[in-house]
Design a protein that fits this description.
Dihydrofolate Reductase, subunit A, UDP-N-acetylmuramoyl-L-alanine:D-glutamate ligase, Protein-Tyrosine Phosphatase, Chain A, 3 domains, 9-stranded mixed β-sheet, 26 strands, disordered N terminus, DHFR_dom, ligase, nucleotide-binding, Mur_ligase_cen
Length: 596
């Protein structure tokens, strides 16, 4: 077991409510009351409230606040944020930043008390504010930081009259509506697009206490087969009894399907709450002149934070694009790096040759950490072997996969010592993906699985939108083939099922793909083709795609929508194959359900 495989932060398992970050402050006339005013400690009820709230939890405080208290408080773990002085006492540690304090807290309840600087950093993250407003004029330490009162709702208010009148107020963060959070991400996608580099991720995750370091991660890169391999790995690990988080994109049928724990999608409430906090952090980063994350980076950070909050034993994470500079490659707790089929795609960002792309994908391989490569082109294998030698990482190349049976719902294959293994996915290529998953889980020394658990996991694997038959009359199969490598595999599977010229195709692609080569491989199989425009800023219009595909098929017609394409296609009374960008397949599924 290597150092990389065990460097994730151990954490205390929680039950009930998820961990929270709370801010505790007393102020008068918008001035913090503490070291100079000392008013909170003149109010017995304030001491009692502070004691009751923080007992058994973690307190994070600034240097001046800690020096005022004098000793670590009993029954609590104290973390002091100071860059100038180290405090060495029982149950007390000193760290240089709030982010480091949250990382040390590792998902436990954290209560913040300190001065304006610490409060300013904590406000974007605070779930609860416990405020004591003193209705008298006292000299305080400094200005209480400005905060958006609309972002919180009052859940408790208690007025106390006497020599020192004050009001206890408890405020809980109000999450933006889920739809508003989705609209924010959609706007950010249109605004920033794809930007390579990890600096924004580093800044944002540091503010959250680097939640991605709290569990080991199976990290996947590749051009095709990542999603299928990911779901096979996750299904096997679940069959072995582990709590498994997954993050894969893009979504096909439901936006929240990218984030799952044990197959349960993130709730709209959790998505909205996390996005609310992340947006607040990004606003603060923008004010400080720090680089602000893209939409994909924001949702990747959300994945890491939410899976940590959900106490996952292990996560399986798919690269969005590339590997070396992909947002997911911020992780340092890789348990195994998995590389699926690598082909020509995203050349604008990854390089013009297969060797360049392989090197970019291989950037996820970490030092002294196992790597698994699906057997493929010799030039790809050479590049990955070179990276593994440089990183001193053991490499398993998945070869010798033999398909023994295949039908519309499953594939049975032999791989190594495991014979007659069935995966509940359609398409012969899924045997290679399932074998890659087997090799990956067998590399996880700290997560043992038996052969029986492997078989059980693969039998319960499902991956929507990949060679999935969603209608019987006529037969309609949908697949996310959107680049030449995937199109080649889809062509082989289509010819295994149907005669050339005996099907109808519905196609929609993105403009940055090699759609001409996709057409050369797949358009000749069709008697008739309907093209659609995906609902994506990078979409190729149905008209332009039709013009391209007419090189390879005589009957190609643009459709106004996936629904119209399906309405026309089913009139041909032939099997229908719909493929291309995943971004429009949900529209097609909805149309099929409405028309049947």
């Amino acid at each position: 077991m290597t150092e990389n495989m065990v460097c994730y932060t151990s954490r205390k398992k929680r039950t009930g409510e998820n961990a929270m970050l709370a801010l505790i402050a007393a102020f008068a006339q918008n001035r913090i009351i503490g070291r100079d005013g000392r008013i909170p400690w003149d109010i017995p009820e304030e001491k009692h409230r502070f004691r009751d709230l923080t007992m058994g939890h973690v307190i994070v405080m600034g240097r001046r606040t800690y020096e005022e208290i004098g000793v670590p408080l009993p029954g609590r773990e104290t973390i002091v944020v100071s860059k100038t002085k180290n405090f060495d006492a029982p149950h007390c540690v000193t760290v240089p930043s709030l982010g480091a304090a949250l990382e040390h807290a590792a998902g436990r309840d954290v209560f913040i008390c300190g001065g304006a600087r610490l409060y300013q950093e904590a406000l974007p993250l605070a779930d609860v504010l416990y405020l004591t407003e003193i209705h008298s004029a006292y000299a305080g330490d400094t200005q209480f930081p400005q905060w958006d009162e609309k972002a919180y709702s009052c859940v408790e208010s208690q007025e106390v009259h006497g020599a020192i009148p004050y009001t206890f107020v408890t405020l809980r963060r109000r999450a933006m509506p889920y739809q508003q959070a989705r609209e924010y991400i959609a706007g950010l996608t249109a605004q920033k697009g794809i930007i390579l580099g990890l600096e924004p991720m580093k800044h944002l995750l540091a503010r959250l206490g680097n939640p991605q370091n709290r569990y080991p991660i199976v990290h996947l890169a590749g051009t095709n087969g990542k999603g299928s391999t990911l779901t096979c790995i996750a299904s096997i690990l679940r069959a072995a009894g582990y709590r498994v988080g997954t993050y894969a994109s893009p979504a096909v049928f439901e936006p929240r399907e990218c984030w799952r724990v044990n197959e349960t999608m993130i709730s709209e409430t959790d998505y909205a709450l996390w996005m609310t906090k992340l947006i607040a952090c990004c606003d603060d980063m923008r004010k400080n002149g720090e680089p602000v994350p893209t939409a994909f980076e924001m949702e990747t950070v959300l994945a890491f934070a939410w899976m940590a909050q959900q106490n996952c034993d292990i996560a399986v994470v798919e690269c969005g694009m590339g590997g070396r500079e992909d947002a997911t490659n911020i992780i340092s707790t890789t348990a195994v790096s998995v590389l699926t089929s690598i082909g020509m795609d995203h050349m604008k960002f990854l390089g013009d040759t297969i060797q360049d792309i392989a090197r970019a994908k291989g950037g996820i391989i970490k030092p002294q950490t196992p790597a698994v490569l699906q057997g493929q082109a010799p030039e790809v294998e050479r590049e990955i072997r070179t990276i593994c030698q440089q990183q001193n990482s053991p490499l398993t190349v998945v070869q010798g996969v033999s398909v023994t049976r295949a039908d519309e719902k499953s594939v049975t294959f032999d791989y190594g010592e495991m014979q007659d293994v069935t995966v509940r996915l359609s398409g012969a290529v899924q045997a290679k993906n399932a074998a890659t998953a087997i090799a990956a889980v067998q590399s996880l020394a700290q997560f043992p699985v038996t052969q029986q658990q492997i078989r059980e996991g693969l039998l319960h694997t499902s991956w929507k939108g990949r060679m999935e038959q969603i209608c019987d009359t006529p037969v309609l199969v949908i697949d996310g083939a959107h680049n030449p490598n995937a199109a080649k595999q889809l062509r082989e599977e289509a010819l295994r099922r149907w005669k050339a010229g005996g099907i109808v195709e519905i196609v929609g692609v993105l403009a940055d793909k090699d759609f001409t080569e996709v057409g050369r491989l797949l358009a000749p199989l069709a008697k008739k083709i309907f093209t659609v425009t995906p609902n994506n800023p990078r979409a190729l219009s149905a008209q332009d795609l039709a013009q391209c595909f007419r090189q390879f098929c005589d009957d190609v017609t643009p459709a106004d929508s996936p629904a119209q394409a399906w309405q026309r296609a089913k009139q041909e009374q032939l099997p229908v194959l719909a493929f291309g960008s995943l971004s429009w397949l949900r529209e097609l599924r909805d149309a099929v359900e409405e028309q049947t």
